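Handoff note, outgoing to incoming analyst
You'll be picking up this chain. Sequence as last confirmed:
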Amino acid sequence: MNIFLIGYRGTGKSEVGRALAGMLNRPWLDMDDELTQRLGTTLHAYVGRWDWPAFRREEKSLLQEVCRRDGWVISTGGGVVLDADNVTAMRSSGRVIWLQASASAIQERLAADPRTRDLRPPLSTATDPAAEIKDMLSRRLALYQQAAHWQIDTEGLPVEQVCRCISEWIAL
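Most recent structure output, in case you need it:
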């Protein structure tokens, strides 16, 4: 059984995924990092050159490959839930855990991460990061809810505590 971490960018999927894999002694894959390697460029540059639909096709292809594995912790991209086939594949090959945080916490985390520009291309034409986050969260809320087997709010919790909560839930 795989463990898929979903949620909006900046909710902690990469940090939690890395730590959870270590705690559970499982292999870990960060899909955005893997796509960056496979595409040979940053996600920002790829989307700028080829567009979002091309990126989503690459993401879907990688997810299909990952779902054939077993026992992995996978940190997905924030938009993986936009494709119903992706959701079906994740739910069929493991447990899907939605990491949540408020729009203001997400904005603070993204602003503090120097990798944001290369890892996180703009999702809309909004020039105000706060407006984009609120808009995208509202659009994706139902998709995250439908995809998830379980959810946890990461705001204000140390990574280790989030991992403990997930591992306890997985053991049930």
